[in-house]
Specification:
single chain, 214 residues, mainly alpha, Arc Repressor Mutant, subunit A, 2 domains, two-stranded antiparallel sheet, 7 helices, elongated
């Protein structure tokens, strides 16, 4: 059933936050999962292109989804040493998620907050070596992240049920590669900066009239 078949947009009235849809989306794949397993899965996939909610937030969303009838849960049996609550998506939850995913509403622009670029923007107050060290740390962190993305991508190969997650992870791989290129370009830009008189990079800019431009 597609969103165009839902009478009177019965699910559209439930304005869930994006994180709730993300958690429900994790449940939309085959199998039942505990909140801990959902957190591990989010850390290994969702965080590469959206974010990974805290475990407390995942459980809060699971309670919300279950109260709405979008998810079900059950206690594990005596065969497990510790009782666990496992969650699954309900038929109503799958219909609601399908309507949200198939909505004509625009996804909206991505939110960009780049702490490193903010520090570089304030580079007139920092030593050149400090700025270079920050970029080198960012490069190392991004290279490690790229390895994790590629490991997650490899786990989706040869299984058609992961076809769309594979596309998202492929985008994540390309984004990490672009991030490496951009960081290396920043290093090159710093190297091209001529040090001011006296050889010091820090200090306030000479122009106190505001941002340059018309």
């Amino acid at each position: 059933m597609t969103s165009r078949q839902f009478p009177n947009g019965q699910y559209a009235a439930r304005r869930l936050p994006p994180t709730a849809w993300a958690v429900l989306g994790l449940l939309s794949f085959p199998g039942e999962r505990t909140g801990y397993e959902l957190k591990k899965w989010a850390d290994g996939s969702l965080r590469f292109f959206y974010w990974s909610p805290a475990i407390s937030q995942i459980y809060a969303e699971l309670r919300r989804l279950e109260a709405l009838g979008y998810a079900t849960s059950r206690r594990s049996g005596p065969e497990e040493p510790r009782a666990k609550r496992r969650y699954a998506i309900s038929e109503a939850g799958r219909d609601a998620l399908a309507e949200w995913a198939d909505s004509p509403e625009a996804a909206g622009p991505p939110v960009l907050k780049h702490p490193l670029v903010l520090r570089i923007w304030l580079g007139h107050l920092a030593a050149p070596d400090r700025l270079r060290a920050l970029i080198e740390e960012h490069l190392a962190r991004t290279e490690a992240e790229l390895k994790e993305v590629r490991a997650a991508l490899a786990r989706t190969e040869d299984d058609e049920q992961w076809a769309h997650p594979r596309i998202a992870l492929r985008w994540s791989e390309l984004r990490e590669l672009a991030e490496l290129e951009l960081a290396r370009a920043m290093l090159a830009d710093l190297d091209r900066l001529a040090p001011p008189q006296g050889g010091e990079q820090g200090g306030e800019p000479d122009n106190h009239d505001g941002w340059p431009g018309p």
